[in-house]
Amino acid sequence: MTTTPTGTTTETTTATPTAPPAVEEEHQVRRRRRLSPGKRLPAGRIAGPLLVLALWAAASAAGQLDPGAIPAPWTVVETGIRLWTEGTLPNDVLTSLGRAGAGFAIGLTAGIVLALASGLSRIGEALIDGSVQLNRAVPTLGLIPLFILWLGIGETFKIAIIAIVVYVPIYLNTHAALSGIDHRFVELAEVQGLSRSAFVRQVVVPGALPGFFVGLRLGVTGSWLGLVVLEQINATSGLGYMMFQAQNYGRTDVILVGLVVYGLFGLVSDTAVRAIERRVLSWRRTLSS
Amino acid sequence: MAPHTQQLTRPAVRLRGLTRSFEGRTVLDGLDLDLPAGQFTALLGHSGSGKSTLLRAIAGIDHGVAGSGTLTAPERVSVVFQDSRLLPWRRVLPNVLLGLDGKDAEERGRAALAEVGLAGRERAWPSELSGGEAQRAALARSLVREPELLLADEPFGALDALTRIKMHGLLRQLWERHRPSVLLVTHDVDEAIVLADRVLVLSRGRIEVDLAVEREGGSHGEYRARLLHALGVTDAGAAAPGPPLRP
Prior knowledge:
The complex is a heterodimer of chains A (289) and B (247).
Chain A (H helix, E strand, L loop, with lengths): L43 H18 L11 H14 L2 H32 L1 H16 L6 H8 L3 H25 L3 H9 L4 H35 L8 H10 L3 H29 L1 H7 L1
Helix pairs in contact in A: 2-10, 3-4, 3-6, 3-8, 3-9, 5-6, 6-8, 8-10, 9-10, 10-11
Chain B lengths: L10 E12 L2 E12 L3 E5 L6 H9 L6 E7 L4 E4 L11 H5 L8 H11 L15 H13 L5 E5 L7 H18 L2 E5 L3 H7 L2 E6 L2 E7 L7 H11 L17
């Protein structure tokens, strides 16, 4: 084919290690310094928490920590077991789960319905989007006094506040995903002659699911956050109430038990959402692998 | 082979005085064009000459673009885009069947996939396909609807040179079997000559050159020179196909 006067240097890509370099003073190729962090460590995520736990246990055993301020890990475990078997912990956990669950369910439904209404129709958008954006600008926990006056200080206002904390991120992320559908896919749907409902079902909704799951995870976290605050306001049962009472009696071990349970709630629910997300968005896994 | 004079039959596409403009800039300027049924036509032009605008007008997806003129096109029109535009959340077969229903749809989808050489890949995700495979799937998606008119907007523009050659063969083969009218928008002069029976050059909003390509007896080099001249490319090296001359 073509031969240029200095042609031989152009074919170095297929050179085998044994082939002598075409140019005499060619220096050996040095690997570039790697800038990415490299391979993940096995059990990398849990290493940090385990280290903290070990330090805590060691300091407690050495008598370096005031047991009144920070009780030893085993004290917390003992208290937890005792509260679970003899105390009100199961009842408190159930109450808290009930509140969070009810608020979450309402918030989830409202978030999805409003996002669909506002993402799929211009009228819906005009009516809903601005209102939600306003609602979002007001810190939801700031609504507590008003809601107590409206709904009384019972369960209803607690559930209502949790629902608001949950619906906002779900709405925002789902709406953004719905309105951010790639216009190329809209064009494709037009060319393929899809009906409006087929377009929504087959293109818009599946395309918006990744955004919805971002909102869902924020919503789940939000429901626990709201719960912690609400259960310290004039509650007579629930984890927050238990911790509030423990504060009055200086029982840091009970407070820590409460925090551990809250932590477990958060961890379990987030893991569950992730698992659902992985299943539903299985088409995305092929991208990262 | 198809006789080249099919003017007697009703044209598949008929444009009269088609004008389109973007923000006051006229892109198509009173364009007249007939595409006979079953003809393979290529449309050349510089980028920005309005090739895609014309194709999108015929496809009926140029919403919100100012314009006038009359345009008739067949009922069943398929479009192949430069990107395969497969929905990433659907496997290959459901992607091919997008917008199609009926009992035998799935069967037809499988047949179309087999025809483009993707038999056995029905359950693959689009992200698992190579660029060439994805574009084959897109071809299958447009074929399964048995279009009377196939519009292709630089369908091979994003493929590597070897894959492109294979796709040329496939497209020509599919056209010979199904005989839709084809309007292929491209900026590749050689691609236009190799594939089409008629090559148009769009310039300043009008058809500047309308060249019939004879499959037998025609000279590729001659066609190429004419088309390049019409496109304003006068480089001496561009006159002949093959490897460029040494400086």
